[in-house]
Amino acid sequence: MTFLGALLMLLPVAWTCIPQKADYVMVSCFPNAIIANVPECPYGWDIEQLSLGGVCYTGIHSPAYYRFVIPDLTPKNHSYCGTQSEYIAGKDPKYIFSNSIVSNDTSLTVRNQPVNYTFSCTYRAAYLVNNAVFSQRVATVYVNNGSLGTFRSQLSMNVFTNSKFLYAKDAPYVIDTSDIGSEVFIGIEAKGLSNRFKVVISNCWATPTPYSTDKKRWSLIINSCSSDNTVTIFENAKDSRSMFKFNSFRFQRLEKVSTVWLHCEVQVCDGERLTCQPSPCSVRSLSSEVHPSGGILTAEFHIKGNGSSNNGHIPGTSLFFLLVVLINTCCDLVNGSSVD
């Protein structure tokens, strides 16, 4: 009887969540982070019992999934939570990062099938002037085998010629200074996905440096809503492509900045397990600060001086601005800001 009582005391611990068959992991290979999602309570394992690389119990319980993030892919932190990295040289050099999500099966009363979700991300190495190692506009989302099937999709952010979103412009994106104030059309698309999955733009902002965490920024989309009337969202979270436009602007008092970066936090949402469509913006308030928790795609904008300028710049020197006026160097939007 003593043994039976002890066993009954342990049962609630073993059954803290409703077990479900979870034989797949969905991986998003972003240039700034790797995000791995497994269905919640896989074979009865709670999130506190799953670890990244057998080292870090850092999982986040998001709706319908447990999410594990490798937030730093720079060489200085290539072994984050047991992450292994491999450089493959050649004409097309690559980096491969790999890790796994494993269950803690060392307890006395193991009642669940052990799990080991191994995953990897491959990046084409591209050593650029700005020291970015990987293409910042492209991510890969994939699932191999399992009940969800097999798919591999390329998620990319592009600039389009007009609101029909038929023709993408070649990178790098060059805009003449005389075009400041014109419309810029952005499309983020995942190719090869089934109708089950939706592309969701959570936040977009511009910075005068390649760092998405730069405090000098201009917000365009906040929590899937336009930051002001200069931004129009055409489609978001409805299918495999989301699109928006914004009026061109530049950062005030930063005329010598040579490049401006547009960053968008994006996720691929499983429409059969989640409600992907954001609630109407009219019933939500916009936060003044954005704290991205997902993958980020980044595009560079190069704006070229027209040579006839008489503002003290050397003719033919490339000027890089991104497009509307930033009055303050902080993140808050100020009413009544002047526009160039």
Would you give an account of this structure?
It is built from one helix and 19 strands. By secondary structure, the chain is mainly beta. The strands form three sheets. It has a nine-stranded antiparallel beta sheet with strand order 4-5-2-1-9-10-12-17-16, with no helix packed on it. The relative contact order is 0.14.
Q: What share of the residues lie within helices?
A: under 10%
First and last CA, distance = 82 Å
Spatial shape: globular
Strand content: 35-45%
What's the count of strands?
19
Mean pLDDT: 79
Radius of gyration: 23 Å
Number of helices: 1
Helices and strands: which structural class?
A: mainly beta
Pick out the low-confidence regions.
1-14, 127-132, 307-340
Largest sheet: number of strands, sense, barrel closure: 9 strands, antiparallel
Main features:
about 350 residues, mainly beta, six-stranded mixed sheet, globular
Would you kindly provide a brief summary of this structure?
This protein has one helix spanning 2-14, and strands at residues 26-29, 34-39, 50-52, 60-62, 65-70, 84-88, 94-103, 116-124, 138-143, 151-160, 173-176, 183-191, 197-207, 218-222, 225-226, 231-235, 241-247, 260-270, 295-304. With 340 residues, it is mainly beta. The strands form 3 sheets. The chain has a 9-stranded antiparallel β-sheet, with no helix packed on it.
What is this structure's SSE topology?
Elements: H1 2-14, E1 26-29, E2 34-39, E3 50-52, E4 60-62, E5 65-70, E6 84-88, E7 94-103, E8 116-124, E9 138-143, E10 151-160, E11 173-176, E12 183-191, E13 197-207, E14 218-222, E15 225-226, E16 231-235, E17 241-247, E18 260-270, E19 295-304
Parallel strand pairs: 11-19
Antiparallel strand pairs: 1-2, 1-9, 2-5, 3-7, 4-5, 6-7, 7-8, 9-10, 10-12, 12-17, 13-14, 13-18, 14-15, 16-17, 18-19
